[in-house]
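Researcher: Last one for today. Full complex below.
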Amino acid sequence: MKSVTIQSPGTIANLVCGFDVLGLALHDPYDTIALRLTEKPEVKIINEDDYDLPTDPQKNVSGVVLISIMERLNNNCGFEMISHKKIKPGSGIGSSAASAAGVAVAANQLLGNIFTKEELVQFAMNGEKLASGVKHADNIAPCIYGGITLVRCIHPLDIVAIPAPHLFVTVVHPQIEVKTADARQILRKEIQLKDAIRQWGNVAGLVSGFFKNDYELISRSLEDVVIEPLRSILIPGFEEVKKGSKETGALGGGISGSGPSIFMLSKDEATAKQVATVMQQVYEQLGIAYHVYVTTINQQGVAVVG
Amino acid sequence: MKSVTIQSPGTIANLVCGFDVLGLALHDPYDTIALRLTEKPEVKIINEDDYDLPTDPQKNVSGVVLISIMERLNNNCGFEMISHKKIKPGSGIGSSAASAAGVAVAANQLLGNIFTKEELVQFAMNGEKLASGVKHADNIAPCIYGGITLVRCIHPLDIVAIPAPHLFVTVVHPQIEVKTADARQILRKEIQLKDAIRQWGNVAGLVSGFFKNDYELISRSLEDVVIEPLRSILIPGFEEVKKGSKETGALGGGISGSGPSIFMLSKDEATAKQVATVMQQVYEQLGIAYHVYVTTINQQGVAVVG
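Model: Here's the assembly. Have a good evening.
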């Protein structure tokens, strides 16, 4: 039977002021998934990495996505998947989204591209539901569409592709655990109207900056007065990384997803590399193991490579 | 001494989801102001309309703007102003902003354009302070820049010009009084985080729609879940106007400024005129006097006409 290999990228959701709505896809890190179409209506999962993820398809992020696709096709086919993850689960760089979106795109390729991108997002959201309890699309959307995406609304789903200037992204993943439950619980159900206004002023500025290729406007708009002040408390070194990165020339940045990874955007590669050095220094000093990526925005999203 | 005549347009602030940050300038209605440069450091005000506005420059919106400009120039000149307002004070269509921005642009023209647009906004905000107690720029900015503007931030002032597709605007001014104090008091100091997220998703969608010339996206994003549900209570006929206008083909709209005027955006003139008919019918039935404008977005802002 037919098989396909895809690369599914890491993504940054909760793009500073654009909490829950703006996200972007990265070139690095990415997962590699090989998917084979089979005749028997079953999902078989083989993990070729060290993350010990479940192989029971009902308990596996990719598995539930493939099951939902099988069900749409009246169970007249099955899938066999070999997964090689490089995006560490719990890093805040969209590990579950890469698994979910990756198999959705791969399955669609095997089936002759019968589904729209929006349908693929719908399938992939089943994986996010399993991973976090909530059907959200803020990592799935940039993973499938590439570039920078706006999830304007979830019900009904409304995804808007936003053009982005060439930007370098430096991401540091300090190897600590931030429990999603903690990251959620620390948020307040109510916020000040004046903070909300400042936030949507910044969201409008950030989106305008992306459309206008206006790096200064992007930089001024990369401010989060609602979520970051609360969640950054959970990430040791956050303030030092942010301050040091901006002093070194980064346009700005913040928490990737719900953390613990931190990302910074830069106009050029030299600055992005200096930002990486700043991040390294902070976590060396704190004695926390870390991983740093210097990469760019991935305009394509999930890519079929074989 | 030199003199100049300007037309200063009405403006719509609080553009639906863009409360406090997004506004646009109209072609109609507009005020006409003639300004003359004099040698004596005084401001003289002549009102040629029926609104009985103060002629004491310290108590007049245009007056305080001219005084602030005189002071910047070490009081080495004065101004004589003849004002002919067509934008009714208290209408919610930026009457005070037209007075404030109009004289700022006129004075700058007389002085050889020595000030930037941003400086003119700063001068004009003194007029808004007098009118409403708060230095705000959400009407001033579109009045001076034209088109659609974002006031990303007030301190420091950050105004972003946003390109707009060709849009028709229908505005109805029901001749009732909504006290600014009431319109403010009805707002809550705290809002639900989930509503704030929906609002900034819509703001991002609306701005993207403007940049992309995507009328459908503009229409979907013209939704206000924070301010309108509270303030629309103060405007009789609001729901009927909104529902009828959208059924007739309007893209959407909402409260103009803090009301009582209501505006609707349409793709073409025929729809904009049908929307006007809907508005007329609503206020005829309610027995409330009204005025309706069918106009377009004014890309220029305050215009020197003589």
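Chain A touches chain B through 38 residues (CB under 8 Å). The radius of gyration of chain A is 19 Å.
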